Please model this.
Amino acid sequence: MLEITLAGRLSFETRDDAASRALYDEATREAGLLEEPWRQASVHMSHALVTLYSVQGPERARLLVDQAVRAARTGESTLMRARAHTLQAELAARAGLERQAQTALGLAWYDMDADHAADPAPTSFSPGHLRGFEGVCELYIGDPAAAHDRFARSATALTAPREQVQRAIVTTDQALARIRLGEPQAAAELLHECVAAASSTGGRVPALGCGGRGRSCGRGGGRIGRRTWTIT
Model:
């Protein structure tokens, strides 16, 4: 199942969306055979993220995230539940649903603050990831200054080699916050970092954010991409 999910992700990265959809469908079937709901949630979330940036768009992604939340609630991984609630918060914020977004973020922090000593997916999500999602929710439904601060804290925390794609995405989001704050020169400096990271990692989503094919961001327009790509 992990190999199929990874293949679906890589197909997305190489811009073969049809192959990516087929592989994720297969991974979903395989995950359904396991008695580990948190693994099913992981597949649904990875699928939702690539769906959001494909032709299927946010509505299909929202349905997949809802499936992930349901699976994660019955699973053993509180970190996977936190991650699912965080994605739910982002999609609510994209739709302008402030109360639902804040509720989902609250649930995510509740799970994040739990004891993770026996969590079967200990590296699947972290406070650094969650702060980045708080920032993107602020961009859609809140304050760009608060968003910028959360992005800065998130980027500082995301230092592991496997987190560099995520850090590049957060840096792109931080640049957008700078633009919204009327600081285009500072934004350009951050985007230079993002371009370098996208070139070195080959990540499609950071490139979307830097190159202008991302989704519009809330009030005042703009482009962002913010994802957690961990596959556990």
Notes: The chain has two domains: 1-125, 127-232. The longest strand covers residues 215-216. Strands lie at 215-216, 223-224.
